[in-house]
Each structure stands twice: as structure tokens, then as C-alpha cells.
Design a protein that fits this description.
3-stranded mixed sheet, about 130 residues, globular, alpha+beta, 6 helices, 3 strands
């Protein structure tokens, strides 16, 4: 299966439209982008072995770890945007159909957005299973 960058961008946009909008509208100073593969630096930082795949990555400071808005630490501080990257080739390798691919992109995007809100993997999986 081959997905062009244009098609990938459209799939990501559709996934954003399908996710609960309260989470999308709450994103502030976040860039959502894509790459074919994680960089060598990202693989080293995450201690990924050569046989491990990475579908997406949130890079930033989760909302739960930020100083409050009235804190001296947060006043007048310029920050680079947080970044969510979706990795096309990693998802392509596990997808049988275009529909599988789009479903995995949406799932990965939700997962990375949840990290922005400060959710850990245990909490994300509990929400996905409807336990919360």
C-alpha cells in the first residue's frame, strides 16, 4: 500500500475532525506534523531497539506538569510549541488496508493528544476500554 504525503495529511485532518472536539479545541500552542520515520535522535532518546516501531510521539510539557498561570515561572515566558509527530511508515507496516491505516492514525493521534493533557499509558488505555 502506498499513501502519498498529501493523502496522509488528509487522513490526519479527518482524524482530527472525528476526535472529540473538546480535546482538539483545548490544544494550545501545539504543532501536529508527520514524518516517514522517527529520527535517530528520537530513537535513542526513547531507547527504541531496531525491531521496535513508533507510531507517534508527543514532545512537550504536559498540561499537568506546567506551572499555574498565576505562577512567577509562567509569566511572560515564551515557549516553543509542543509537537505531536505521526510516523507514516511505521503505521503503514502494520496496516492491511487504507481503512486500517486511517483507523491507526486516528488512534495514534488520540494517544499523543492524551499525553498533551497529561494522561499516562495506563489512564489512556482505561479510557479506551471505557473504564473511566
Amino acid at each position: 500500500m502506498n499513501i502519498s504525503d498529501k493523502e496522509f495529511d488528509e487522513i490526519i485532518s479527518s482524524a482530527l475532525d472525528e476526535l472529540p472536539q473538546k480535546f482538539i479545541q483545548g490544544l494550545n500552542n501545539v504543532v501536529i506534523t508527520y514524518e516517514n520515520e522517527p529520527s535517530q535522535e528520537q530513537r535513542v532518546q526513547l531507547q527504541l531497539r531496531c525491531n521496535q516501531s513508533l507510531f507517534g510521539l508527543y514532545e512537550g510539557i504536559p498540561l499537568t506538569k506546567r506551572p499555574s498561570s498565576d505562577s512567577m515561572l509562567s509569566s511572560n515566558v515564551m515557549r516553543l510549541p509542543d509537537k505531536i509527530t505521526i510516523f507514516k511508515n511505521s503505521i503503514l507496516r502494520v496496516s492491511r488496508t487504507r481503512e486500517d491505516f486511517a483507523k491507526q492514525v486516528k488512534h495514534t493521534l488520540w494517544h499523543e493528544i492524551a499525553h498533551y493533557y497529561g494522561l499516562d499509558h495506563k489512564r489512556i488505555h482505561a479510557i479506551e476500554r471505557g473504564e473511566v
